[in-house]
Design goal:
15 helices, mainly alpha, 81% helix
């Protein structure tokens, strides 16, 4: 569990840094730089898709070399550079560059890091391990949102000051990451390469990936939730508090949800999570009162706790041990295929049909994915 704890602390600090920035970006882009919701969707779609598409290649390289730590460190280092670019930004193109560099780092680090967690944990405790990591990660997110709120109010809307302070925990995370130990594991034979051919994948994994792809098409960036809150009437500091409530619920429930998936099975938790997602997005389409917005953000945290770590645990359960990082990366790549059209479509639906439209669409896709998962997995 040493690696799980250390990686959890690294993720804690990195999310402190990231979430000092992430929830204020849509406000910075629209209020300070004059970008439209459509531009916000395109930026997030490109950035998140890049991260997800890179994960399969990073996982492939990790499995082929039998190394996890170096790629993980490169990834966290790149994300730190991305924060610096946000501090220097003077237009939405700079923000796009910063998000691309930051998400490049996430794409490089995620598969080898998650494989390190799986390599360091027994199969019957894997849900708990990913749940613990997610708890620390999301606790960092909650701390980051609190710090963003503090700095944004202290410096009276000075976004650049928040971006600069966010660099400090990112650097601290890289220093702690040096403590991680490379794990011994069964590797590929000499000259053998990981296979990414669809026909060679386990049938259950293929079915799961197709369901995930359908779900992702309706799972636009969380920044649209923040924009929706602003649209309903919340100011920038209160939007941060909404995001904080979401992260607190997410962090609190992630470890119990992971342990529950070890006992009840991953499928049960994931179906429940997709149903909750569909209902929450329908709620965001219909919401009118501020109290309803607070409730929706809290319940959205439950959806994330039921799915985020549990999906990764399910992939590692199904994947061959010697191809674990590759399959974790492949899962993320399938998500990435859907992320760009999902966020871009959400932005266009908002611009063309109004703020309710992307949430109606997302709610429908969440229900479809839940039904599909219940049938085919």
């Amino acid at each position: 569990m040493f690696n799980v704890i250390v990686l959890g602390l690294v993720s804690f600090l990195t999310d402190v840094s990231s979430e000092m920035v992430y929830p204020i970006l849509p406000l910075y882009l629209t209020a300070r730089l004059g970008a439209s919701p459509g531009i916000v969707g395109i930026i997030e779609g490109i950035a998140e898709s890049l991260a997800s598409l890179l994960k399969v290649f990073s996982g492939y390289i990790s499995d082929r070399l039998g190394k996890r730590k170096v790629l993980t460190m490169v990834g966290y280092g790149s994300s730190t550079v991305g924060k610096v670019l946000l501090y220097l930004s003077t237009s939405w193109l700079w923000v796009l560059a910063g998000r691309i560099v930051d998400r490049f780092g996430k794409g490089v680090r995620t598969a080898p890091r998650d494989a390190l967690i799986a390599d360091s944990t027994a199969a019957d405790h894997r849900g708990a391990a990913f749940g613990l990591h997610r708890t620390l990660d999301t606790a960092g997110a909650a701390t980051g949102v609190l710090l963003a709120y503090f700095f944004l109010t202290r410096y009276q809307g000075n976004f650049a000051a928040v971006f600069l302070w966010a660099v400090i925990p990112a650097v601290a995370a890289i220093l702690i990451l040096t403590l991680v130990r490379e794990t011994k594991r069964e590797g590929l034979s000499k000259g053998e390469r990981p296979s990414l051919q669809w026909s060679t994948l386990p049938p259950r994994l293929k079915a799961f990936l197709l369901v995930v792809l359908a779900f992702t098409l309706g799972n636009s960036s969380n920044q649209f939730l923040l924009l929706r809150a602003k649209n309903v009437g919340f100011d920038a500091p209160t939007v941060l508090l909404l995001y904080l409530a979401y992260n607190i619920i997410f962090a609190t429930v992630s470890l119990p949800a992971g342990r529950l998936s070890d006992r009840l099975g991953r499928k049960t938790l994931l179906v429940a999570g997709y149903v909750v997602y569909g209902l929450v997005y329908l709620g965001f389409a219909l919401v009118k009162a501020p109290l309803q917005v607070w409730l929706l953000f809290a319940v959205y945290g439950l959806y994330m706790a039921f799915t985020e770590g549990v999906e990764k645990a399910l992939v590692t359960d199904i994947a061959p041990q010697e191809l674990r990082a590759t399959m974790i990366g492949l899962h993320a790549t399938v998500v990435g295929i859907g992320l760009l059209p999902a966020s871009a479509l959400a932005g266009l639906l908002w611009d063309w049909l109004g703020p309710q439209a992307p949430f109606y669409f997302g709610g429908l896709m969440g229900v479809i994915a839940a039904v599909g998962l219940a049938i085919v997995i």
